Amino acid sequence: MTDDSSQRNGGESGAMGPQKALFAVWLAFLVAVIVLYAVIGVRHG
Amino acid sequence: MAERRRRFFRDNGLSLVFIAMFVAAVVGQAVAGWHDFNSDQVTHHQQTYGFLRYIFSSDFGSNLLDNWQSEFLQFAAFIALGVWLRQRGSTESTDLDGDPSSDEEQQLGAHTDPNSPLWARAGGWRTAVFSHSLLALMLALWLASWAAASITSWSNYNDQQQEHKEATLSYGSYLTSSNFWDLTLQNWQSEFLAVASISIFSVFLRERGSPQSKPVGAPHEATGVSP
Question: Mind listing the pLDDT tens digit for each residue in A2-42?
C-alpha cells in the first residue's frame, strides 16, 4: 500500500474515530451479552 | 452535519447493514422463540413466560449463544488455518508461492511507514501481540460464548429433566452428555460446510465487484488475488 492509498483509506493519520467507536461499541455489546447469559445460566442452573 | 452523517454511513455501510440485519433477525428469533416456548409450556402444563422474562431466560440465551460460538469458531479456524494451508485458485487463500508472513509482506520492521499502526511500529512484545490480535479476539469470543452456551444449555437440560421427573446432571457431567455435543456439533458442521464451500467455489465462480471474488477475468489458477 502506498502512502497515498494509506491516506485515502484512512490509516493511522486518517480520521478513524467513527470506526474506533463502532469497534468498541460492537465488542462491548458482544461481551455484555455473553456475560449476561452466562450469569443467567449460572443463577438458574 | 448531514455531510458527516452521509460520510459515516458510506464509510461503515458493510458493518452497519450487517448489524441491522443481525438486530432484525434476533428480534424475529426472540418473538418466534417466545411463542414456541410458551406453546411448549402449555403442552406440558407449565407456566407461560412474558416476553421480557423469556428474553432473559436460559432458553433464549442458549438458542442465541449456541449459534454465536460456532460463528466465532468458524472465523478463528479460518484465520488460523489460513496461515498454513492453501487452496489453489481461491480468494480465501494466500498465494501458493512466497512467504506471506515475512516482514516485507506484513509491512513490519524496516517496511513500516508513518501510517502503520502504533503497535506495528513499536517492535518487541507489542508488535508480537498485535500480530495475533485478530485471532486472539476470535478465540476469546469463541471460548467465552461456548462456555456461556454450555451453561445455559445445561440449565435448560436440567429444567426439562425436572419437568419429566428425571435425574438432573452436574455441569461437569453435562459437558460429556450427548445433548451438549449434539447442540455443539450441529452448529460446527454448518460453519465448516460454509467455509469449505466458499474456499472451493470461489476458484471457478465470480461475483463482479465483490471483495469475496476474484476479478471476473482473473485466471482460475490465480490464488490470493484481490479485485
Answer: 334 444 444 444 579 999 999 999 999 999 999 999 999 99
Q: Which of A32-36, B128-132, B159-163, B182-186 shows the lowest per-residue confidence on average (mean pLDDT)?
A: B159-163
The alpha-carbon radius of gyration of chain A (Å, integer) is 18
- Tell me what pLDDT residue A14 has: 57
Angle, vertex CA B124, rays to CA B122 and CA B130, nearest 5: 70
ipTM above 0.90, yes or no: yes
Q: What is the pTM of this model?
A: 0.90
State residue B179 phi and psi, 5-degree precision. Answer: -60, -45
Q: At what angle do helices A17-44 and B2-11 cross, to 10 degrees?
A: 60
Q: How far is CA B121 from the centre of its chain?
A: 29
CA distance A20 to chain B (A): 11
B86 exposed, middle or buried (CB, 10 Å; 0-12, 13-18, 19+)?
middle
What are the φ and ψ backbone dihedral angles of B148, each rounded to 5 degrees? Answer: -65, -40
Q: Which of B8, B19, B145 sits opposite A34 (nearest CB)?
A: B145
Amino acid at B13: G
Q: B3 — contact with chain A (CB < 8 Å)?
A: no
- Residues whose CB is less than 8 angstroms from the CB of residue B84 and which lie 6 or more positions away in sequence, other chains included: none
Write out the three cell numbers for B72: 466465532
Contact status of B63 with chain A (Cβ, < 8 Å): no
Residue B226 has pLDDT above 70, yes or no: no
- From chain A, pick out residues whose CB is under 8 angstroms from the CB of B61: 36-37, 40-41
